[in-house]
Amino acid sequence: MNKFHIRIGLILLGVVIGIWNFYILGIEWVAYHETKRSYSQTRALIQFSQSVGDFVHESQKERGLSAAYLGSNGDIQFKSSLEKQRLISDKKFLALLQRVRTLSRYSLPEKFHQSIKTSIDKQRHLGDIREQVINLTISASEEIDFYTELNANFLGLLPLSAKSAPTREIALRLYDNTLLVECTEKAAIERGTLANVFAAKRFDPGMYEKAISVHAIHQSCKQSFFDKASNNERMLYNAFFSHKLFQDSHRIYEQALSGNFSMGATKWFNHMTVNIDHLKTLHEKFDQLLEEDLSQLEKKTLLKHEIFLVGSFTYGFFMLLGAIYLVQQMFAMINTLRISSVVFDSNEGVLVADINGKIIRVNPAFEAISGYSESEVLGLTPALLKSGLNNNQFYKDMWSSLINKGFWNGEIYNRRKNGEIYPEYLSISAVRDEYRKITHYVGIFSDITAKKENEERIYRLAFYDPLTQLPNRRLLLERLEHALLKNERNQTYSMVAFIDLDNFKIVNDTKGHLVGDDLLKEAGNRLLEATRAEDTVARLGGDEFVILIEDLGSSRDHAFKIASDIGSKISLSLQKPFEIHEELFFITGSIGIAILHDYKQTVNEILAQADTAMYSAKESGKNTFRFFDSALQQKMLKKLECEKVLFNALEENQFQLFYQLQYNHQNEVSGAEALIRWFHPERGIISPTEFIPIAEENGFITEIGKWIIAEACRTLQEWSHDSHQKNWTLSINISPKQFLDESFTTVLLENVNTYAVSPSRLRLEVTESLLINDIEKIQHIMYRLKSHGFTFSLDDFGTGYSSLSYLNSFPFDELKIDQSFIRNMKNDPHASALVRAIITMAEVLGLEIVAEGVELSEQHTILQSIGGIHYQGYLFSKPLSKDDMHAMLLNNHSDL
Questions:
Q1: Residue 811: is it exposed, middle or buried by C-beta count within 10 angstroms (0-12/13-18/19+)?
Q2: Mean predicted lDDT score pLDDT of the chain
Q3: I want to staple 260 with a disulfide (CB 3.0 to 4.6 A). Which of 255, 297, 590, 714 is the partner?
Q4: CA 270/CA 289 separation, integer angstroms
Q5: Strand spans (E) along 565-668
Q6: Mean pLDDT of 744-758
Q7: CA-CA distances (angstroms) from residue 47 to 53, 91, 103, 703?
Q8: Under a CB-based contact definition with an 8 Å cutoff, are residues 486 and 550 in contact?
Q9: 508-559 pLDDT, tens digit each
């Protein structure tokens, strides 16, 4: 027999002895816990017994007070005490239920649990009895019998709990305590019975015999307890019952039997309550002694088990210690083989290489991911998988970590057999022998292509516009922050171009969102083509784009020149027709450019500046670009301030109509043009050229127009009472937005009816810009108003499209020659010829002519020579308030 066999024999012997010893140890451990559980159960039974005693004790008081209440025929004092006692009884019952729940964790006889259920079911009828007592619909005898039966049910649980004690001695003492609780119950019955008698001051039928019976049972119960109690318990019992209170109870009982009820129910009840409380105190003392004895017994028993457990464990431990040391290597080898088997069967690729880095084994997952079979890679190095995307420093850091730390993990790009490059997460661990020398390397990797694609998808959703695939506002703001830092560091300039597509809304509304979306994508592509690859072209939303271009040099003038060239290039790229769904669309761009240099600027301030410059480009006729400057910013701030206070102007009556008189060729007043003026309480007079464009832009012009119509009609009503003014016409300017408003016609008709003026005296002035919109709709509105008697004037004729077809297509009554022609008549023969041609054409068409802006007598003389026209201008009258106009007319009449 060699040493190996001896070693195996010793291992087996030690294992067998150790296992046997631990088997015995296990049995003892179970016994130990069973003992603890048994004593825990007994302690729970004692606490349950105490809770039963507490509940029965309070139930006894309730029974006695109920009997006294019935005997006194509903005395209010008893009723108050009874209601308080019921609350105490309910509280004790809830505590008892908690003890019942605790007992449910232990394996007690089914009879015990069934008895508990029966007792609880009985208690649920207590509510009905209580109600009958309060209503005096139950006799005292019936009430006492119910409470007695209820208490008897709960007291009947105590002997059952005594049978579950771990020793006979404990069981007997539990039973003795049960007898003492029963004594309190008998005393309580006696208390309740005589309380009823004292309250009634007589013995009702049957109550005399019942009083004698319960007193006898009470005395018998106490004697039974005394006979079965231990010596210590008898000594405590005698100490309690030698008290004068117990002697007085018997004397009062004898007096009551002889018909002496002078003591009264309340004193009797309180007297007996003190006696019963003494009995309860005695019961609690016995329970306390029992628990102390139980604790000491438990400690002794558990100590025996613990000594045996410690000894057995120590013996078994030393027996197995040698065997464990001998088999340690065996278990380690088995565990290593098991782990290796699990790892090699996993979904992650596994590669094992020797100290020289040559592959000696791979798993099926490696073959599936790389595309190489095991036979193809054995003897080769992992360099076979190199993709070329990771540089030499990357691999140097990897080997440094392997040699110094024993492991490396991270992301790497490798190449499959078919040439496809893929990302993987790789963990490499160095395997060392017992001398801490590296013997192998194990690499575990997984293909993270799907993870990378999800990350890219999430990144694009967060930082790119889903329609155009351009950077969104979030990414733009990040790059703007970077550009500001770069400008500060290198002291260079950058630029931001804010682009809004002109007339895009018309295409989107008329051709639908599908065409609009494709147009936006094509616009984004053109902007990309017009910029460098390193520039940022972003879409903020809607038809708004922003371009960020960095590295414009350190010279301010040079930066502005480059920005100007870029602005022109962007503008030209958008001027080419867009072919969308085989249709051509002409969309241009309004571009605002802000130059970045001051690193103290915020990205929001920069965007706001570019946006302001863009609106300046819009106001300049669109299809152009503008640079931001401080004057432009002040203009925009002034515009914003004006827009803010504009909404309150109507409510606060800050608007007023001025009137510029119109004269016929005989120099007689024929009417006037109403011109709005804004008198602001702080800023003074605000020019219409400042607030009318703002009102046009934000839509408030419609509300202002309604006010003008109402004021004009009111003025015409006032003129109708004056013989000189009753035939005058009053012209009001109508904006295109107001004219196309759905309520325009209704507002006009309502006001002429309200003020009872002729529609023919209210002349509606429109410009040629209105006529290029929806021609059919405009014709419909004009002819409808014409049918009601309204007249129309074409204002600023000759400055717009000046299409003669307008005069034939729309029902105009008057042409107003723009003042730019009148101003140049004296020095420009062409202007004079144009005016004559317009007048001749109007006469042929039967239209009235008004020459605007007549300021010089020479202009008036030339116009008079042509003849048949009306005049309006500062030569005759500047715009006047209603009062000033009235004063001027009075003065003119007085001169006549």
A1: middle
A2: 81
A3: 255
A4: 28
A5: 578-580, 583-585, 589-596, 625-627, 655-663
A6: 94
A7: 10, 16, 10, 86
A8: yes
A9: 888 888 999 999 999 999 999 999 999 999 999 899 999 999 998 888 888 8
**How many CA atoms lie less than 13 Å away from 238 in the CB half-sphere?**
7
CA 780 to centroid of chain Cα atoms: 52
Q: What is the pLDDT of residues 24-44, one digit of tens each?
A: 777 777 777 777 777 777 777
Residues 596, 496: contact at Cβ < 8 Å?
Answer: yes
Residue-wise pLDDT for 64-108, tens only, equals: 788 778 878 888 887 888 888 889 988 988 888 888 888 777 777
- CB-count exposure of residue 701 (10 Å: 0-12, 13-18, 19+): buried
Q: What is d(CA 396, CA 375) in angstroms, rounded to the nearest whole number?
A: 28
| CA–CA dist 480, 819 (Å, integer) | 49
Decide: 807 and 837 in contact? Cβ < 8 Å.
no
Q: For residues 543 and 574, is the Cβ–Cβ distance under 8 A?
A: no
DSSP SS3 for 720: coil
Location of structure tokens 């784009």: 545
Q: By C-alpha distance, which of 801, 749, 814, 746 is closest to 775?
A: 801
Tokens standing for 726?
A: 């009753």
The first and second tokens of residue 168, run together, are 């006979």
Residue 52 near residue 154 (C-beta atoms within 8 A): yes
R_g of the chain, CA atoms, integer Å: 55
Lay out the sheet containing 536-541: strands in order across: 536-541, 544-549, 494-501, 589-596, 625-627
pLDDT at 274: 72
Examine the pLDDT at 1 and tell me if it is beyond 50.
Answer: no
- Would you place residue 340 in the very low, low, confident or very high pLDDT band (cuts 50, 70, 90)? low
- Give percent of the chain above pLDDT 90: 22
Q: What is the pTM of this model?
A: 0.42
Alpha carbon distance 486, 463 (integer Å): 21
Q: Quick count: other Cβ atoms within 10 Å of Cβ 378?
A: 12
- Answer whether 700's CB lies under 8 Å from 647's CB: yes
pLDDT at 762: 94
Three-class secondary structure of residue 648 per DSSP? helix
With 0-12 CB in 10 A as exposed, 13-18 as middle and 19+ as buried, what is 693?
Answer: middle
pLDDT for the residue 244: 61
- Strand ranges (DSSP E) for 619-703? 625-627, 655-663, 669-680, 684-686
Helix (H, G, I), strand (E, B) or coil at 448: coil
What is the spatial distance between Cα 20 and Cα 700, in angstroms, rounded to a whole number?
A: 99
Tell me which H or E stretch contains 407: strand 407-415
DSSP annotation of 577 reads: P
Report the alpha-carbon distance of residue 809 to residue 171 in Å, rounded: 120
Transcribe 796-818 into DSSP letters.
EETSS---HHHHHHS---EEEE-
Report the range of poorest mean pLDDT among 294-303, 410-419, 555-564, 872-881. 294-303
Least Cα distance to 401 among 426, 378, 422, 366 occurs for 426
Residue with tokens 């297509």: 809
Minimal CA–CA distance to 538: which of 592, 473, 479? 473
Name the token pair of 163. 């049978």
* DSSP assignment of 336-364: HHHHHHHHHTSSSEEEEEETTS-EEEE-H
| Contact in structure between 199 and 263 (CB atoms under 8 Å) | no
Q: What is the pLDDT of residues 363-391, one digit of tens each?
A: 888 888 989 998 898 999 888 888 888 88
Confidence of residue 637 (pLDDT cuts 50, 70, 90): low
Query: Taking the mean position of all CA atoms in its chain, how far away is CA 28?
Result: 59
CA distance to 87, 266, 292, 709, 715, per residue, from 272 (Å): 21, 10, 30, 102, 106
Secondary structure class of 726 (helix, strand, coil): coil
Nearest Cα neighbor of 39 from 50, 31, 28 is 31
Whole-angstrom Cα distance, residue 223 to residue 218? 9
pLDDT band at 337 (very low <50, low <70, confident <90, very high): very low
Nearest CA to 523 among 481, 576, 473?
576
